[in-house]
Automatic annotation (TrEMBL):
<keyword id="KW-0223">Dioxygenase</keyword>
<keyword id="KW-0560">Oxidoreductase</keyword>
<feature type="domain" description="Intradiol ring-cleavage dioxygenases">
    <location>
        <begin position="132"/>
        <end position="292"/>
    </location>
</feature>
<dbReference type="Pfam" id="PF00775">
    <property type="entry name" value="Dioxygenase_C"/>
</dbReference>
<keyword id="KW-0479">Metal-binding</keyword>
<dbReference type="Pfam" id="PF04444">
    <property type="entry name" value="Dioxygenase_N"/>
</dbReference>
<comment type="similarity">
    <text>Belongs to the intradiol ring-cleavage dioxygenase family.</text>
</comment>
<dbReference type="GO" id="GO:0009712">
    <property type="term" value="P:catechol-containing compound metabolic process"/>
</dbReference>
<feature type="domain" description="Catechol dioxygenase N-terminal">
    <location>
        <begin position="33"/>
        <end position="105"/>
    </location>
</feature>
<dbReference type="InterPro" id="IPR050770">
    <property type="entry name" value="Intradiol_RC_Dioxygenase"/>
</dbReference>
<keyword id="KW-0408">Iron</keyword>
<dbReference type="InterPro" id="IPR007535">
    <property type="entry name" value="Catechol_dOase_N"/>
</dbReference>
<dbReference type="GO" id="GO:0018576">
    <property type="term" value="F:catechol 1,2-dioxygenase activity"/>
</dbReference>
<dbReference type="InterPro" id="IPR039390">
    <property type="entry name" value="1_2-HQD/HQD"/>
</dbReference>
<dbReference type="InterPro" id="IPR015889">
    <property type="entry name" value="Intradiol_dOase_core"/>
</dbReference>
<dbReference type="GO" id="GO:0008199">
    <property type="term" value="F:ferric iron binding"/>
</dbReference>
<dbReference type="InterPro" id="IPR000627">
    <property type="entry name" value="Intradiol_dOase_C"/>
</dbReference>
Amino acid sequence: MSKTNGTNGTAAASRFDPNFTAAVINATGPKANPRLKQLVGGLVQHLHDFLRENEVTLDEYFAAIDMINRAGQMSNAKRNEGQLLSDILGMESLCDEITSTLAAEAADQPTATAILGPFWRKDAPAYAMGDSIVKGFPDADHTLMHGRVLDFDTGTPIANAEVDIWHTAPNGLYESQDPEQPDMNLRGRFHTGPDGRYSLYCLRPTKYPIPDDGPAGELLGLLDRHPWRPAHIHFIISAEGYKSVVTQIFDRRDEHITDDVAFAVKESLVVDFAPRQGDPKGKFELEYDFKLVSFEAGKKYGMPGAKNA
Ligand code: MBD
Ligand code: FE
């Protein structure tokens, strides 16, 4: 086997002791801090791979050690040579990007809004906790959806909040478009209990093309655009003293999640339906909390629509 490119470091192909790196990593004892164990283990793995892939010799290695020692010896309260080295290798900038990305992802937000669309109807039937909005479709993907409505600022559950929900049948039609469905099918209004919880049965939604028999369809055709909306469920969440949220949730598995004809998808509204076992009423389950901003707290954000008390 010839000594050539960077593949020498891979475990299978290596000409060097295949057990060596694992032995070093596994020397870490059980009482080591788990994060430290992860970091040092990963560092050893990458360093060893680097040394093998580049077939670093002892002369090269000692030159690097000497450079690190000189950087340390030169550093003091007025001079930080170690950091300067890390900066010119891009490492501090990369950690900066990682840190700010994690912070942005972790930051809690009120429930994001999404467009109302043309198919909301007022006065959908009021249902009791745990009821189903589905009439018919025994073989469809019935889903238990549940969660809480929370005050965004305090995290407190909101009692008697209204969850107004509507979605299409598996044929992609809202009941108002479909003479085959009973009036107000797949629409309903639920109210949270004292613990802020709601619970209902609906269907796992289906992607569908928006109606193409009018000017909207005509324009899509002229623009060479497709008519598909990703599978979604609509909601209006409202509660006394809170700004209502008009929104939609989207099924992550949908092929149109990245090219919604109505451009409404936001990452925080993309959900994963979980399979549900042992429930004759539902094959899937979805837990989702809605977070509302109170008019009181909204004043401090300059929230549009916040009433001045
Ligand atoms: C829909 O079902 C919808 O939700 C939107 C926003 C546009 C067209 C059809
Ligand atoms: Fe819709």
